[in-house]
Amino acid sequence: MNLKNSRILQPIKKARREALLSWLNFRGWSTDQKYIIFESDDWGGIRTASPDAYQAMIKAGDPLDKYPFPRYDALASEDDLELLFELLYGFTDIHGNHPVFTANTTVANPDFEKIRESKFSAYYYEPFTETLKKYANHGRCFELWKSGMTNGIFHPQLHCREHVHITRWLQDLQKGDKDLHRAFEHDMISGGSSFDENNRFAYMDAFNYYGLEYDALLESIISDAANLFASIFGYKSRSFVPSCYVWNSRLESILAMHDIEFIQGRYQLIPTERGYGQFDEKKHIIGEKNDNNQRYLVRNCTFEPSLGYGSAAVDLCLAEISNAFRWKKPATIGTHRVNYVGYIDRSNRDHNLPLLQQLLTQIMACWPDVQFITSDALGTILAGSELN
Questions:
Q1: Which helix (H) or strand (E) holds 108?
Q2: What burial letters (b/e) apply to 261-298, b meaning 16+ CB within 10 Å?
Q3: pLDDT of amino acid 275
Q4: Among the listed residues 205, 183, 199, the one whose alpha carbon sits nearest the alpha carbon of residue 70
Q5: Strand partners, 297
Q6: pLDDT of residue 388 exceeding 50
Q7: Rounded to an integer, what distance in angstroms lies between the CA atom of residue 268 and that of residue 34?
Q8: pLDDT tens across 40-60, in order?
Q9: In Å, what is the CA distance from 330 to each residue of 99, 107, 123, 326, 378?
Q10: CA dist., res. 21 & res. 322, Å (int)
Q11: Cβ of 196: how many Cβ atoms within 10 Å?
Q12: Contact 210, 70 (CB under 8 A)
């Protein structure tokens, strides 16, 4: 494409993006308040185990470097948390509250040693707090989590038990999948080789089950997850975001049994009888209620510099916030953990934290009356409003 055509197409793309945002935001619950919510997924869950594991996988021919999650994502280290938290402490809203991450948490990870000892015949898991103890530079991480919680910048909510489809993962390990076993040797769920058209999330879609025969398994997983969350954090999670946005209505009923009131997400991928990875897509509107009287909280903004947006992530997010406020909607920003970790590659964190600084600086300059709140706080406001 030549420069002239690029200049012509840019306004068209911008107008199209604005129209899509307006279509998303004009419906549903509205408010005159300018709420900013950061919804950040994957905290507590493993991805790439260490810099050494990354290099070993690359050397063995696995294309980890082709996909941003295995390329950059890992358990956040002490340095990662301290730098992120220091940045968040630098900003306050009109009520004196700091920006707060709703930290959607994977409360457990596979226990690789026990699974290995069983010769892949059974699945075992461990609390993520135990996983942290096995990683270098992670010994103080949970204390940092608790400090962030106490100071109102880090607010865990439930994401999943483990961020893995345990049934398919274990089956493929039992079949001797070489790529999967190579990742397993490094205490990793999968590598770049696992991504394909029939496995688009590389086993990370924990709730991708279709059929009544899986209800008991789902009930067990959610029960374990909810109980483990409460035992770790001392309170029940009131909101939930299914991993990879994959879930069905039966999961919602199970969540309701564990007092989950609000379901986060950008859209819903519904498992179907057509087979694993074949989804129906459904979009929700903010405040919409399901048959369990649970309300949907919709992400209408994105800040994901590690996922292909790069430095443009700031301007794109600001445009989305502007559109949300124009339609009197909260600005709910989806922003995965991967953007803030440097345990595998320090340059990832060091590039993105200044972008978050720019984003927050611009937010405060453009909308000095914003209020930083959590997802479940938004749900409480929404549920208690006279319009509901």
A1: strand 108-110
A2: bbbbbbebbbbeeeebbebeeeebebbbeeebebbbbb
A3: 86
A4: 183
A5: 264
A6: no
A7: 26
A8: 999 999 999 999 999 999 999
A9: 14, 28, 40, 10, 8
A10: 10
A11: 9
A12: no
Following DSSP, what letter does each residue of 271-330 receive, concatenated? E-TT-TT-EEEE---TT-B-TTS-EEEE--EE--GGGTTGGGHHHHHHHHHHHHHHTT--
Instruction: Report DSSP state, residue 196.
Output: B
CA-to-CA dists, residue 222 to 241, 254, 354, angstroms: 12, 7, 37
pTM above threshold 0.70: yes
Tokens of 104: 């959607």
- Are the C-beta atoms of 156 and 237 separated by less than 8 Å? yes
Q: How many CB atoms are located within 10 Å of the residue 317 CB?
A: 26
The amino acid at residue 363 is I
| Amino acid sitting at position 234 | G
Res. 201: pLDDT tops 50: yes
4 pLDDT higher than 70: no
Residue ranges in 43-140 assigned as alpha helix (H): 51-59, 68-72, 78-89, 112-117, 128-133
- By the 8 A CB rule, do 170 and 98 touch? no
